[in-house]
Amino acid sequence: MDLLKEIFGHKIEVYAFVGPSGTGKSYRAQMVAGEKDIDYIIDDGLLIKDNEVVAGESAKKAPTKIETVKHALFYKEEEKQEIIKAIKQYKPEKILILGTSDGMVKKIASNLGLPEIQEIIYIDQVATQQEMETARRIRVTEGKHVIPVPTFEIKKDFSGYLLDPLQIFKSKGKGEKPYISEKSIIRPTFSYMGNFTISDTVFRQILEHLANKTEGIHRIQKVRVSNFGEGASLYMEITATYGTNVMNEIKEFKEKATKEIENLTSMNIVDLEIVVKNIYVPQNEENT
Fold first, then answer.
1. Nearest-CA neighbor of 185 among 229, 134, 230, 148?
2. Boundary residue ending a domain (145, 164, 186)
């Protein structure tokens, strides 16, 4: 333990939650953590604190299942060091590691330099056989995986892929506070179901709706959408309204449009370029 204190600067209790892939571990992770008074979870390459991702990148973004396993085990030095740095910064007293086997969670703890796991909780201790079979069926037929953080926390990490918020309300027992949490269901990039895409028309409709409320934009002439791995890049040509502070209007419009599109589509907007092609002068219309 002295060596561990030299690494992290404080004592850490390590727990593990183990179950076969697709049986609902991540779905129940926060409940298990709450019962053990644990604030930090390590799941699929992420360090999560109280429903917030504080370090790491989800292994589910890896292009193959082999890469996913390597990422989840923190084989790469830079991935390992990012989590270790976060543990040093946040100084968790307890950590819950999720994995598919005893060997996996022990390997994760070892790779991160954490102390030995003092207790392993198994999925069949907290879920019925029927619940596990249902979770596995959803994984196989729909290619979905649950990460124990809210949708907005992983939206930018999973730009372009399907996200479904899932709210859970469970009572821990008489006299106990109810457990309420939101999970995020994502589809891994290597899923046979394919990528989740959004029609360019959707982007244009959202932009036109916001433009109608923007004094400095008379109308949108053209919209072009380019989809990159990290998100969508939008290009707009507009007719601006003469007599308004066009630069300020465009700046505010870009902020609103980016936020609105990300909220409505779960797509990350990496760039929104607006070019003024024409000027609309209201008086001219009155004189004609």
1. 148
2. 186
Q: What is the pLDDT along the chain (288 residues), one digit of tens a residue?
A: 444 444 566 789 999 999 988 787 877 888 888 889 999 999 888 898 876 788 887 766 666 777 777 888 998 899 999 999 999 999 999 999 999 999 999 999 999 999 999 999 999 998 888 877 876 776 656 556 555 665 545 555 555 554 555 555 555 454 555 555 555 555 454 443 344 455 667 788 889 888 998 999 999 999 998 876 567 889 999 999 999 999 999 999 999 998 887 766 656 788 899 999 999 998 755 443
Q: What is the DSSP letter of 187?
A: -
CB 244, CB 216: distance < 8 Å: yes
Q: Is residue 192 part of a domain?
A: no
* Residue 191 falls inside a structural domain: no
SS3 195: coil
Task: Please say whether the beta carbons of 96 and 41 come within 8 A.
Answer: yes
Q: Which of 125, 160, 186 is the last residue of a domain?
A: 186
Q: Which CATH number is 229's domain given?
A: 3.30.70.1350
89 burial type by CB count under 10 A (0-12 exposed, 13-18 middle, 19+ buried):
exposed
